[in-house]
Automatic annotation (TrEMBL):
GO molecular function: purine-nucleoside phosphorylase activity; uridine phosphorylase activity
GO CC annotations on file: cytosol
Protein species of origin: Flavobacterium hydrocarbonoxydans
Name of the protein described by the UniProt record: Uridine phosphorylase
Pfam families (alphabetical): PNP_UDP_1
Domain of life: Bacteria
Entry EC number(s): 2.4.2.3
Stretches assigned to the Nucleoside phosphorylase domain: 29-264
Catalytic activity: uridine + phosphate = alpha-D-ribose 1-phosphate + uracil
GO terms (BP aspect): purine nucleoside catabolic process
CDD domains: UP_TbUP-like
């Protein structure tokens, strides 16, 4: 039996941080970072059956063209992803009354929709990027046993290419779900590696008043290439989502609307349109339309 201190439940039987019970979520779930983006997606739903929020974790479940879908805000960073993925998995794969793992495990379909800036000149603003791999620079996933789901070849190549300081912990590389990749892919979508940082400033190469360990890291990442896979963008969640999903047996895919191109110095003239197009594209694919 899983002890009370390890799986914490609220008085109403919901999981501690997400404030959800098993009946509140669909098996198809869309992640967003910002709680205010949840309704930017559910505004397209035909109906909403459930809504709740605790801290930065907001969830709405409803129906889009006959498909039951949940939308959830995760907040910022790999540490929040650790909370969200473990509690979501508990909702479907642990009997919350007996506190025992279920014999028949359920696989969720999880798609992250975000915005990002492209690192590559040929990936223009208003395009979509699919993360073929998540490259974690954050070290969170190293708390788990990840050898069976990570890609040593990409990790070692990145360490060598960037002269990575191993005192920061070894980066980890996790592939996306092939199942979701086949459902979502199209000619409009660019594929590549999404790097996941553990912070916004120093970990992403931003300098305010503090010097950083490797001022050249971003430029090294720009020209990293492994078997044709380049680093397309840099954010704070994808690799953690991929890693925990793979370990727990869920399908995960990360998509970004590109609203800026750092290499060319351009910014989308209508970033809201690009995001809405990615949202409706993804919803239609999930609904089989």
């Amino acid at each position: 039996m899983i002890q009370n201190s390890e799986l914490i439940l609220n008085p109403d039987g919901s999981v501690y941080h997400l404030n959800l019970r098993p009946e509140h979520i669909a098996h198809d779930i869309i992640f967003v970072g910002d709680q205010n983006r949840v309704e930017k997606i559910t505004q397209f739903f035909d109906s909403i059956e459930f809504s709740t929020q605790k801290r930065e974790f907001k969830t709405q479940t409803g129906t889009y063209k006959g498909k039951r879908i949940s939308v959830m805000s995760t907040g910022i960073g790999p540490d929040n992803i650790d909370i969200v993925l473990n509690e979501l998995d508990a909702l479907v794969n642990i009997d919350l009354k007996t506190r025992q793992p279920k014999e028949a495990l359920v696989s969720l379909n999880i798609i992250r929709i975000g915005t990002s800036g492209s690192l590559q000149k040929d990936i223009p603003v208003d395009s979509f990027v699919m993360s073929k791999f998540g490259l974690g620079l954050d070290n969170m996933l190293r708390s788990y046993l990840i050898d069976d789901v990570s890609n040593d070849a990409i990790e070692d190549a990145f360490v060598l290419h960037t002269n990575w300081d191993i005192k920061k912990g070894k980066p980890y590389a996790i592939p996306c779900s092939e199942k979701l990749e086949k459902i979502i892919e199209s000619d409009r979508i660019f594929k590549g590696i999404t790097a996941t940082a553990g912070g916004f400033y120093g970990p992403q190469g931003r300098v305010l008043r503090l010097n950083i360990q490797d001022e050249a890291l971003n430029s090294k990442m720009d020209n990293f290439n492994f078997d044709g896979n380049r680093i397309t963008n840099l954010e704070m969640e994808t690799a953690a989502i991929y890693g925990l999903s793979a370990l727990l047996g869920h399908n995960a895919l990360s998509l970004n609307a590109i609203i800026a191109n750092r290499a060319s110095g351009t910014f989308s003239e209508d970033p809201y349109k690009a995001v809405d197009e990615l949202i409706t594209y993804t919803l239609n694919k999930l609904a089989g339309k």
